[in-house]
Amino acid sequence: MTKNFKMVAKTLFGMEELLAQELRQLGASSIEIGTRNVSFEGDTGFMYKANLCCRTAIKILKPITAFNIFTEEDLYKKIYEMPWENYMDVKGTLAVNATVFSEVFTHSQYISLKTKDAIVDRFRDREGVRPDVDLDHPTLRINVHIDRNICTVSLDSSGESLHKRGYKVESTLAPINEVLAAGIIMLSGWQGQCNFLDPMCGGGTMLTEAAMIACNIPPNLNREEFGFETWPDFDVDLYEKIEEAALSKVRDFPHKIFGFDTDSVAIKKAKENIKSANLQDFIEVKQQDFFESEKEHEKPLYIVFNPPYDERISVNDVESFYSSIGNTLKRGYPGTQAWMITSNMEALKFVGLHPSKKIKLFNGKLESKLVRYEMYEGSRKASKQ
């Protein structure tokens, strides 16, 4: 058995508790919640499992050392002294990513460059040749984190960000990030217990994530590659066992997932993405104006959506658009829990409904609110009785 080591999973603001819960359910130990990250312990197999199965993680980092630095020379010297030949071959390629919270070191790009120089200089001094840099598909991705004077160096086991699930073959204007979509659905409490509707589905990200949650399908099953697959110690047999075990937990889903959009091009793209994820048996999309729709069944329904904003909706339309959301929910969707994310806080006033919950999130760099509206059958008072 391989021994446990510390790892750090990075996530979006507001998703930390969800990620900690996911890691706990997968079997991680020593879980500690930070801001936009969760640290935990596990073995190599768990590192593979976390990359494959965590819906709300963006990266899984494996810290390999930490040290104090006070000058750029300190950084160069300490990085140079590390045994990089244990982690990559000179014929391999590397990429360095840095995050910096320090008054002394203020430029993350410069820190990346200095780190890269130290690594390639070590190889050149020892072997007479140097590895190349490849920012897109490197053999080894290295993460440098400087907090005041403490520098932590980690290997990036994920490679490309884990929001890139691999099922998206068609992109729409301003698509929602897959990790954000999965997190919103999980925050709503929907786990596949009833029908699900995204009434403004765009390219179908929310629908696809909902289907994978309902069927307990590992979110990153469709990815072409993880960072750890190019590491010298990658154990392909162990990874295949982990994948097999995760797939054995896939479950059937007896309800339906629906998507509407007024744009026929968006519907076509959504269908392509859903097909790419092999989820067309669970998801139905059609060209439909939500404002002219109503609930088809008396059964409970979850509505989760990301209304268009900025470039997709002009400022003049905001008031009528958001009031139409409220009117449609009131008129056509009794017995429904409706969740909506928006970065337009003013627009929420026009919905004309009182949100029973508000959660602060970020959609890209935009501060947003995830709000819940509970649409009761008949009056609220009657439903209480």
TrEMBL record:
State the PROSITE patterns in the record: THUMP (PS51165)
Q: Which residues form the signal peptide?
A: none
| Span of domain THUMP | 46-157
Q: Which Pfam families match?
A: RlmL_1st (PF22020), THUMP (PF02926), UPF0020 (PF01170)
Protein keywords: Methyltransferase, RNA-binding, Transferase
Keyword match Transferase: yes
Identification of the protein by name: Class I SAM-dependent RNA methyltransferase
